[in-house]
């Protein structure tokens, strides 16, 4: 538990040190802009806390647009591919194993124009 607290404090300190915005323009823990360090998607304005690999630092990123690779919503709060923008659906295969390993990926499609 102590290690998690130390990690959280370090990530917050790094986010503060690397952001060029004034304190009034950014959130400290929530309402983070794209590119700022995050732990879960609920902290980001875009609702996507994205990481490139299992050991990389996660940063807020824009949600996936139509025909881009996406992730289904997960319990983890971080994604290898962001969820789709509002009005789009992440179409792809879903499996129990993929839900556990956070590998249920798909493509964002407009449900009104999908075949």
From TrEMBL:
One GO cellular component term: extracellular region
Self-association state and partner proteins as the record states: Forms a 1:1 stoichiometric complex with pancreatic lipase.
Function: Enterostatin has a biological activity as a satiety signal. Colipase is a cofactor of pancreatic lipase. It allows the lipase to anchor itself to the lipid-water interface. Without colipase the enzyme is washed off by bile salts, which have an inhibitory effect on the lipase.
The protein's name in its UniProt record: Colipase
Keywords: Digestion, Disulfide bond, Lipid degradation, Lipid metabolism, Secreted, Signal
Ranges for domain Colipase N-terminal: 26-64
Molecular function in Gene Ontology: enzyme activator activity; lipase binding
Record Gene3D superfamilies: Lipase, subunit A (2.10.80.10)
Endpoints of the signal sequence: 1-17
Locations listed in the record: Secreted
Phylogenetic placement of the source organism: Eukaryota, Metazoa, Chordata, Craniata, Vertebrata
Stored InterPro entries: CLPS_chr, Colipase, Colipase_C, Colipase_CS, Colipase_N
GO biological-process terms attached to the record: digestion; lipid catabolic process
All residue ranges annotated as the Colipase C-terminal domain in the record: 68-110
PANTHER family assigned to the protein according to its UniProt record, in alphabetical order: COLIPASE
């Amino acid at each position: 538990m102590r290690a998690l607290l130390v990690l959280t404090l370090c990530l917050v300190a790094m986010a503060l040190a690397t952001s060029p915005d004034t304190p009034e323009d950014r959130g400290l823990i929530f309402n983070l802009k794209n590119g700022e360090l995050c732990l879960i998607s609920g902290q980001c304005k875009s609702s996507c806390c994205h990481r490139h690999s299992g050991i990389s630092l996660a940063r807020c990123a824009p949600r996936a647009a139509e025909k881009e690779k996406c992730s289904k919503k997960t319990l983890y709060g971080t994604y290898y591919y962001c969820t789709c923008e509002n009005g789009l659906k992440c179409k792809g295969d879903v499996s129990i194993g993929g839900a556990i390993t956070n590998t249920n990926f798909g493509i964002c499609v407009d449900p009104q124009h999908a075949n």
